[in-house]
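user: Kindly work through both lines:
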Amino acid sequence: MRRLLIGLICMTAIAWVFFFGDAIVEASAPDFSVQAVLPESQSNENVSYFDLTLAPNQEEILPIQVTNNSNEEIILELSANTATTNSNGDIY
């Protein structure tokens, strides 16, 4: 009987840790924001992404504005990401 009681207490403790051990969770949002500076070749000015109309082989430098919203210095690595669309034309 004593072994059963000890086993039950251990199982209860393990279940407690498994279900409630991660109850305290802290999520932090990035302390910076990025905004596209839309050029004259922008087709749709009502969107926040680059939607350009360019001639074939025409190149354009696309500026962005990065704002640090924290009081600390941050280091960011920036890179371009090509958007793709699904069969419905939704961007993802």
Observations:
- Strands lie at 32-36, 64-68.
